[in-house]
Amino acid sequence: MELNLKNKIVILTGGAGIKGSIGETILRSLASEGAIPALIDRNDRGIDYIGSIRERGIDGLFVKTDLTQPDEIEKAVTSVIHKYGRIDAVINNVGVNDGVGLDGSYQDFVSSLHLNLISYFLTVKHALPGLKESRGNILNIGSKVAYTGQGSTSGYAASKGGVLALTREWAVDLAPSGIRCNCLIIAESWTPAYDNWIKTLENGKEKLERIKRTIPFENRMTTPREIADLALFTISEKSSHTTGQHIFVDGGYVHLDRAMLSE
Description:
This protein has helices at 22-32, 45-55, 70-84, 106-134, 145-148, 154-174, 192-199, 204-213, 224-235, and strands at residues 9-13, 36-41, 61-64, 89-92, 137-143, 180-186, 246-249. By secondary structure, the chain is α/β, with parallel strands linked by helices. A seven-stranded parallel beta sheet has the order 3-2-1-4-5-6-7, sandwiched between helices. The longest helix has 29 residues, at 106-134.
């Protein structure tokens, strides 16, 4: 299916993760569709990632940015608009399940909000003139934690709950401007970071198999590629009348009957 994303300017936050991460996979998928990714991230991997895209004859931009710092976010988005003159989509992907629970400090909690929620608000706020010019759209990357809870991660849970609410709020707020806003909800996804975490656990392989058995569809984790494919479809004109939606890409983890689960 032709998504018609060629030469679309797409801001992607948090896309300089480890190779094979959700953000990096979205970045690679954007380039494969001929979109022009504007990568906003603090990790210098972004230099190499955008460099490799340019080697393929596709334009791209990396702006090294600490997404917990409001001034840096404003400068980064302004630089994208200055270079390209417009923004066709924003994918708010940055996020860390940082384990800031009730035993965490006030500052730790606020820092979690800054990265996982406030960065979403500020990126969209500063991108809005470009989005209005193009009648573009916004895609927020969310988490099942906002629906199910997890335990010991109050900062992340509060942030992701806020992301769900902002998705609906922005869909209402921006509809008169022709701007759509949606959110992808991810549950258990097999990423390099997840792999590294499993390896730190005693009986990690056994725990991994238990987790897989809790996922109704095919008893397996969602792949980053499946998430990237849905992300690109959602920001494309093929989803031109979809807005305000919480779209689950989770193999039925959140909603399906537990009776489906294997013994």
